[in-house]
Every structure is written in structure tokens, then in C-alpha cells.
Amino acid sequence: MKRSTRINLLLLLAVAALAVLPLVLGLGDHKEEPFAGADGEAETAITELDPGYEPWFSPLYEPPSGEIESALFALQAAIGAGVLAYYFGLRRGRRQGEARALARTEPEHGPAGEGAGDESASRPRS
Amino acid sequence: MHIAEGFLPPAHAVAWGAAAAPFVIHGARSLIREVREHPESTLLLGASGAFTFVLSALKLPSVTGSCSHPTGTGLGAILFRPPVMAVLGTITLLFQSLLLAHGGLTTLGANVFSMAVVGPWAGYAVYRLLRRYDVPLMAAVFCGAFLADLSTYCVTTVQLALAFPDPGSGFLGALGKFGSIFAVTQIPLAVSEGLLTVLVMRLLVQSSKGELTRLGVLVAGAASARAGERKAVAR
């Protein structure tokens, strides 16, 4: 495995460890509702600080169940991950294409390889 | 850091909206200018927005026994400067408030101010400062992303403490209370965000050297990323 790939995997592993450790160590056990959202806890804190406070506006649309909500969150993550993957895939493909075009033109035109390589590099976008 | 719909008194909601609006308008202008002058950067802009989308959907457990999520605004702020992130962050927050009942329209101004204005600027400032003192690129990126994330939650803490001071101990008491909910929970998550931002930046250095050089993240003419890490370049 290449050194840079190893470092990238280690970075992912560290993130996973940071997420899993609180669960494994049972850091939520002291709570009535372990690992609830901090946003929700803030709402509870507000009602404690100011018991008379009534939210004066409610969401226009509220997911009817936890399942629908998690589906929409998954959709959000999927859209983001899809666009990121498209970007990196496109970049990788372009680089490979350039390298291949360069390799093809080199034996005929010498080392400059101006034609295909530069043309695809300067293409504004696709 | 999403303050729920209706959970800020009207005066606060309006004030934060007024504070955030100029940044978003200015950001929209810089975004349009960026796309017009450099159409080739549209893809990377999309990728920066996508990063925010993914990270703010990831609810992660933290040491306090509650869950929160990163913001993902540091990457775009480092690449395209903070104004652009004011727009991309607002889009993310709108998506969440309209479809997920997460955050809200009345609290949009306050949430935009913390996540799409202060976060990106704080992260970018630290990144630029560290680069000026020749801190290696990836270390500066980590610190920038870490601070963009953490400062966002600190602003939310202040916003809520201003709106709901503790009856006994006042603003400071409420600051401690909301701080223990948001800021402390966020520290390990900010580390995660820093690591993920470094990962994406490493992939970008591999795949998009030309683009990063144009944006001033890498030094022009540098033979390798390593050489690019030595000097900060003014933009």
C-alpha cells in the first residue's frame, strides 16, 4: 500500500475511533436518554431557564416519524457524498486520460505531447 | 448548533437576521464573481458545498454522552475565502430547516451567523495566521477546520445565553449551561472535522494541484505539495 493511502486510512480510522469510543466507554450511561441530540438538550435547557417561554413559530414541515427524518438526513449525506465522489472521480479520470493521451502522442511527436494533453487540461469544464 | 424553530424571541431573531444578511449578500456577490471569472472552479465549489452537506448530516456521539454534528465550513473557507461559505452554509441550513425541521426559518439568521459567518471567518483567520508563520499546510488546515467548527458552537452558546439569561446567575450562568451542552460536546467532533478536512485536502493536493495553486493554497510552480507547504502565499 502506498504511504499516502496508509495515512488517509489512518485519518479515517481516527475519526471512527473518536465516534465509537464514547459509545464503548458508556459515556452516555449517566443520562436518562443517552446520546440525545445537543440541539434538543438546548431546548430542554431553555424551558428550564424560562419555564414560561413558548416557541412562537413552528416548522412549516415536520417529518412525520423518526424514520422519515433519518431518511431525509441520509438523503442529505448521500447528495453530499455523491457530489464529492463525482468530483474526485472526474479528476482522477481526467488525469488518467491526460497521461494516456500523452503516452500515445509521445512516440510520434516527441516528448512535448502538446495536442491531447494540454487540450483536455485547458477545457474549462464539462 | 441549530437553534430550533421559534426558540429565539422575535427581537433576537430579527437582530441576528439583520446581522447575517449583509454577509450572505456579499457572499452571493463573491460567489457569482468567482463562477464568472473562473468557471472551472464551479466543480470545486460544488464539492466544498457537498462537504458541508455531508458533515452537517453526520450526527456523532461525543464524550458528554450526547450527539452533535460537525459543520464542514472550514474547507470551503480555506479554499474560496469565507464570503463564499456564507452562501453555501445558508443553503445547507435552509435544506435542514425546510425538510428536516432541524433549525428553522425564524432562527435561520442566528444559525447562519454562527455556522456560515463566524465559523468560516474564525477558521480562515487561524489558517492564514499559521501559514504566515510557515506552519505546514496540513497542520494549518487542521487548526482552521477545528476552529471553524468549535467557534460556530461557541457563538450558538452566546446567542442562547443572551436570549435566555439564567434567572439567578444571569448571562454568565446561562453561558456555562449552554456551553456545557454545545461547546464541550463539540471538542472531539471538531477534532474529527479537522481530520476529515485534512483528508479531503490531501486528496485535493493529489488530484487538483492546478486549482489549489490558482486559489493560493499551494505555491505556484512548486514541484511538489511538500515544497508548497513551506510558504504561505498572499491572495
Tell me what you see in this structure.
The complex is a heterodimer of chains A (126) and B (235). Helix content of chain A is 69%, strand content 2%. Chain A has helices at 3-24, 38-49, 66-109, 114-122, and one strand at residues 36-37. Chain B has ten helices and two strands. Chain B is globular, with a radius of gyration of 18 Å. In chain B, helix 1 (10-37) crosses helix 5, helix 5 runs antiparallel to helix 6 (137-163) and helix 6 packs antiparallel against helix 8. A two-stranded antiparallel sheet of chain B has the order 1-2. In chain B, 60% of the residues are buried. The longest helix of chain B is centred in the N-terminal third of the chain and has 28 residues, at 10-37. Chain A: It is found in: Cell membrane. Chain A: InterPro entries: CbiN (IPR003705). Chain A: Belongs to the CbiN family. Chain A: Pathway: Cofactor biosynthesis; adenosylcobalamin biosynthesis.
Characteristic key phrases:
heterodimer, A: 126 residues, mainly alpha, 4 helices, elongated, B: 235 residues, Arp2/3 complex 21 kDa subunit ARPC3, two-stranded antiparallel ribbon, 10 helices, globular, disordered C terminus, cobalt transport (chain B), transmembrane (chain B), membrane (chain B), transport (chain B), cobalt (chain B)
